[in-house]
Amino acid sequence: MKPVLVVTGGSRGIGAATARLAAQSGYSVCLSYNSRPQAAESVVDGIVAAGGDALAVQADVAVEGDVVRLFALASTLGPLRGLVNNAGILERQARVEAMDVQRLTRVFAVNVIGTFVCAREAVHRMSTRHGGAGGAIVNVSSAASRLGSPGEYVDYAASKGAVDSFTLGLAKEVAAEGIRVNAVRPGVIRTDIHASGGEPGRVERVKAAVPMLRGGEPEEVAQAIVWLLSDAASYCTGSLLDVSGGR
């Protein structure tokens, strides 16, 4: 039976690229989406057409009941062996003095609390302490966690800083229970998340600040994620891997 991987936010960008590559690497993939069913089903159809196994589940990771249901449905594919905490949001570019509590609550509910709750459900199923066979968790953080995103997304950057700290703490907590926990920190990647912030062409504007002088592709981040999930990274836990072109 194939190992099962949950990829949150798997309908587009880094999540979709990760789902496709993980399926090619032998996982049965359960991907979640919040509001793009057609995009999610397109990813699933592509995986199935290539001979893989995949399932799309609507779930808002900021809603605990949705997360519980997501993992229950993922378990119908087989034993859970991996989680990619990819779901994340940002709001429109703004300075801190213009950010209201509603905005901050939305960002932290998805990016931080959602990551915690998904990891909780994965640990319940994978930890040898609970009868599981072990596994791996990869959290998708951001280079913003160390750059701060001034004048644009300080709230997003702060939420990803929390993801970094969470990665370090959880990795130590479950290391002896067969679970490795790592994070990737993408830089400016060509996905449509930039449109959510009000600047679809942001990658072109900022790429000159990247030592490699270009934006990254979702598939380049997916390669790092799937490596961290694999046995090739068997002695890596608590690592924060930058995939940022040197920035």
Please give a structural write-up:
- Residues 3-182 form the Ketoreductase domain.
- It comes from Thiomonas delicata.
- This protein is an alpha/beta fold and 247 residues long.
- The protein has one domain: NAD(P)-binding Rossmann-like Domain (Rossmann fold), CATH 3.40.50.720.
- It is built from 9 helices and 7 strands, in the order βαβαβαβαβααβαααβ.
- It has helices at 13-24, 37-49, 64-74, 101-126, 144-147, 154-174, 193-196, 202-206, 218-229, and strands spanning 4-7, 28-33, 53-58, 80-85, 135-140, 179-186, 240-243.
- It has a 7-stranded parallel β-sheet, with helices on both faces.
- The longest helix has 26 residues, at 101-126.
In terms of quaternary structure, the protein is single chain
- Share of β-strand residues: 15-25%
**Helical residue percent?**
40-55%
N-end to C-end Cα span: 41 Å
Mean pLDDT, all residues: 97
CATH architecture annotation: 3-Layer(aba) Sandwich
Task: Indicate the CATH topology.
Answer: Rossmann fold
| SS-derived structural category | alpha/beta
Q: How many domain units?
A: 1
Summed up, the helix count is 9
